[in-house]
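User: Before I run my own analysis I want an independent prediction to cross-check against. Here's the chain; please return only the structure tokens and, at the end, one sentence I can use as a sanity check.
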Amino acid sequence: MGRNWKRVYPNSVIEALRLCKDHALEKRHLSVERIAELMGVTADALYKWLSTGRMPVALLPGYENACGIDLVSRYLATSSGRLVIDMPTGKRPDADSLQELQMALHKAVGALLTHYNLGADPAETTAAVMAGLEQLAYHHHNIQQGAAPQLDLWEKQS
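Assistant: Structure tokens:
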């Protein structure tokens, strides 16, 4: 069974780049050579950036698109103290997404208790808290979006 990619929070740019590569391999069956080809760069250059973490910023969107996950962008935002949430749609959540929220909040509180009482790893605690905050923020904005739904511009005129 694969990794739960919704709960992955890298602790460095290098780790974020490598996790994106792992996601591409696991979910899209893409090798480093194929990712490089999709980006229009050489495999040698991509291997170098994966080992040094010094990928040119202009290539990050293409890399994340090829890999199918935005872990580098998320790491850069969260390392600057920013909260990253998916764009809400204003649609009513299903039971699974609310259960996911409940689990994330439960894990966040558990991580905080462990951290403050036993001195757990700050990176793991931060990741658990960020996951809970991100899901709460999504639902907060989803409620607001639902109160003012967007017009369907592609609907046929009668």
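Sanity check: The mean pLDDT is 88.
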